[in-house]
Amino acid sequence: MSTPLTRFGRAPARFAAAAAAAALGAAAFAAPAAAQAPDPTDSYYDFSGPVTAGEGTRHGAFGLFFGDDLEPGAHTVAFSLVVDAHESTFAFEGFDERCEDFPGSNALNCAEEKADSAVFFDFDYSAAAGTEPGVYPYAVTIFVDDEEVDVVEGDIEVLPGEDQPSSAWPFLHGDAVFEGVEPGATVEVQPEFLQEHAFPEDAAAVIVTFSEPEYPFGDGKGAAARADYDNCVDRYFDSPGATCVVTDFTDAPGTVFTPTVPVHYDVNERAPGPVDVCVCYYSAYVVDAAELEARFGDVEWDPSGDLFGLRTVSEPESEFADSTVGEIVIRTADNPWDLTVADAKAKGAKGSEVKVTLSPGNGGPADAYDFFDGPGSYALFGTLPTGLALVDVAGEDWHCLAEADWDDYLPAEDPADLAKLDFACLIGELAADETKPLTATVKVTGSVAKADGTLEIVALDNDGYPGGLEGDPTNDTAVFSVDPSGSGQLPTTGGSMTMILVGAAAAIVAGVLLFVFTRRRRSAAEE
């Protein structure tokens, strides 16, 4: 059986050798470098699992994003993925001709020749039957041409298969669901789980783990777990969360248990709503003395102290189904954001080139989170007034699309509407009370402006996700005008161009393979 490592830094020599071999394979895809290779400005890695040993596959994906220093079509972008595990633990399939696996090596290479500014690879992966449950470290090495530009380290979780001994996972887990939680509130979580099997004779402790939310609600943006008890630590394997060790336990098949004290989940006070800010997981399982010491050391505490324990439940309220995990779902109450954009005016004489500040922002009270991976979850669309020609538009954290990419990102748009569009810029997130300006450089081409242009800020949507979280749509549009004489205010004569937002987001999810945060399923068979 393969044994996971709990820390990436402890990877043995076999991992270093496999990584080097896979890196050579990835570099073999690459063309000779003509100059210093550009670094990616952003990346996306969907390879965290969990995957159940011997039970089907999960879908994985990697995305890389580059700035203006990567000339489209002039470079080869490649990556090498290697998982630290015994030979033939992980297998890869379902990838296209750009990728190559190495059977038995737990490695996958992919390369995009003549790469654009956004590169995506997707694949399926699985863990072999008999793989030891736990967390396995991996490394992804990124190459541009033949130059290594980045290394990303992470972990993937493997759950036990149904054919593995059930004594270590004797519980069936119930879910804990909380609706209408006010941002800034604390949720007390005490899930129920049913003991289905007797404990093994060498059982030394019951371990109960609690995870924190994944993207985009990690790093405290959704809900942070807290278990302030003497026999708990503030980690979920090597990730944020909580793990509690119970050595004073009762072995009673057929009994429903729940913690004697709650684990607290603190909801971010600026989290939007209504939305699931925590689709988190807990697990209860048994370890022997050797594993207990290896993972937690000398577990001694004052029995009269503040301890996390287990008690029986005489009238359970949960349904019990999964032997490895239960869900903790926290859904916020209404807490909208307010996307805004201000009017803008270009002033200058005919033939002059001027800079205009565009001022989209978020009036709060909620932060506008980055729900979609890739260039952005929010867009500023602009049409210029007559008498102006666009030279450039750019802003910090904004990704302004080339016109050639509009069909890829906005495939469902009416061609007539696209023909009116002069620029489209995307951004990942907008904090409450934040303005993220852009600078539009324009040339004054006429002495008379016959019609104003428009500015419109929108939240992208994919099949109803994340939902209608805009608090005041009346300030989502503004006027873009021009004063070709250099002074004075022209009347507003134009209207807002309404964009089909679902089409835009559908392209981000499908047309360019950007990946929406989705709820992790309990087993591969449910995905």
Automatic annotation (TrEMBL):
The keyword Thylakoid does not apply. Keywords: Cell wall, Membrane, Peptidoglycan-anchor, Secreted, Signal, Transmembrane, Transmembrane helix. The chain crosses the membrane at residues 497-517. Residues 1-37 form the signal peptide. Residues 485-522 form the Gram-positive cocci surface proteins LPxTG domain. This is LPXTG cell wall anchor domain-containing protein. It comes from Glycomyces paridis.
